[in-house]
Design goal:
Helix 3 packs across helix 4 and helix 3 packs across helix 9. The longest helix has 17 residues. The chain has 10 helices and 19 strands. The protein starts with a strand and ends with a strand. Strand 12, helix 4 and strand 13 form a beta-alpha-beta unit. The strands form 4 sheets. Strands 3, 5, 6, 10, 11, 18 and 19 form a 7-stranded mixed beta sheet that branches. The protein has 2 domains: 166 residues, Medium-chain alcohol dehydrogenases, catalytic domain (Quinone Oxidoreductase, Chain A, domain 1, Alpha-Beta Complex), CATH 3.90.180.10; 146 residues, Rossmann fold, CATH 3.40.50. By secondary structure, it is α/β, with parallel strands linked by helices. The structure holds beta-D-glucopyranose. Beta-D-glucopyranose binds next to helix 3.
Length: 358
Amino acid sequence: MKAIAVIPGKANSLHFEDAPDPVPEAGEVLVRVLRVGLCGTDAEINAALYGEAPAGSSYLILGHENFGVVESVGSGVEGFKPGDTVVASVRRPCTECFNCQHGRADLCTSGHYTERGIKGRHGYMAERYAESPEFLFKIDKAIREIGVLLEPMTIVEKGVAESLQIQKRLPSTPRTAVVFGAGPVGLLGAAALRVRDLDTIVVSMEPETDIRAEIAKQMGCRYHSVASSPLDKLATQIPAPDIILECTGSSAVGFAAMQMLAADGILCLLSVTGGDKTELVHAAEINRDLVLRNNVVFGSVNASPTHYRLAIRAMKAAEKKWPGALGKLITTRLPWTDFAKWFDRQVSGIKTTLEIGS
Ligand code: BGC
């Protein structure tokens, strides 16, 4: 079958590979891929910043944001039938750590987990894949058109769910939130906060006239553009929030955000920042403020099956409350043969998908 792959460690090695057809084992499901979403992780793997081929393979099939249709089910598979639309999760457990053995590969402590399309396992930019049903999530009609956004939605659902869980330490309930970044993760994060009725401000570079601001406002957020005013002025322009989600991909914003929290507020860092950028920060001041304000800063990666279920619920709630808002995140749909256009930065917009099958 045709697949889009990289040679890990070799920059700009993205190419069409003639990969073997997947042969599902008994108890597995064969899925035809309809589309994949492209994200910064894919670009960074193609830039050779990370990415690892499966053992014994010289290439890695890319792609982790996925949406497909069940083609056939192996013997003993329950709960799935041909024609069901599904999304597969990304991370697979290691064989040694306690958390992985207890369904929380997203909290793996050994570092020996694998991730489809990222680390040691082929991804979804292929005509088909075979998978165990425990890693598949059914997508019903209500969110089929935006099903490809489920994987990034799980990332923010985990961030928001864990923020709220940590804040159970407080007698009060968090009410206000700021999201840094109005890319797909930022806007999905805003949706996750708004379906929980938090008063949310989205802060981003784009002007008020941008489609990102329109989507944020449709979901009942306020939108604050930092196009014309620098980040260090922001604290005087918006109220200090109880929860911040950092979704810009910039470590500098992460550190700036630490100083914008309300007392007892919490900062969730969601950007996997590639590269080795250094930054001068006011370490004593930041440390002092975090201590004196009882702040919590935590990082969150990947998602558990619970977060997939929460994300499906949140996407359905968002579709009902603000019909079409999440769909506007998909600004470009490319035939998959045109993948280079996105990787060569010829495509702007919010989320680009590669259309693989029908
Ligand atoms: C993916 C996650 C993954 C993380 C680290 C992100 O782009 O959405 O599923 O765990 O990268 O590899």
